[in-house]
Amino acid sequence: MASPQTQPRLGALELLGDLHPLLAQLGAVDGLVTLQSAVASLQLPPLADRPALRAFLGHYRDRLLLPVEFPAIRQAWHHAGRREARELIALDTALSADPRLAHWAAASRRVGGAQLQQLRPLRDERVVQRYLAAVETGAAHGWHTLVYGLTLSVYSLPLRQGLLGYAHQSLDGFLHAAGRALRLDAGEVESLFNEAAGEVPAAIDRLLQPAAA
Hints:
The structure is a single chain. By secondary structure, this protein is mainly alpha-helical. The protein has one domain (33-212): Urease accessory protein UreF (Orthogonal Bundle). The protein is 67% helix and 0% strand. The chain contains 10 helices and no strands. It is globular. 38% of the residues are buried.
């Protein structure tokens, strides 16, 4: 039986099901980025021990996940729900100019593009088709965060649960990659996850305040 601590994270991932494999391999070589690349992009020293991993997770959460990725997903979700293809493409362009994402661009394009291809059969979804066309002509990047938000909207999945699932998949991916290398036991991994993810629900609440809509 799952412990009370593990139930919320499992519930979030089960809610998303198989529709959103965008970050399922985040810590692997064939996923979004390797753990080493993620550490380098945040200008942190190599992960040699548990304290270094703990610091990395905090930096990723505070410097990328919460201030950059979450707002991007939220805006894409809103634009898709309002059928605002032009605004979605403009958001894509704005993200391309953000220096914080420079190290993630190529991998994000690869993952986002692959997911967009899975949405291609949705011919009646005008915003999907226009964004896909923009990506294919080079007018848009195809950021995986925007495709994630778009996918949540297309399948009418709640934004709050989608953001929670995204964060959990990201943190789980990094921990999975680092845990074996550092020989952490299950308890240590769970403790690090809970610490890193503990601030996420409150951050989502702030992001989704009516005044921010």
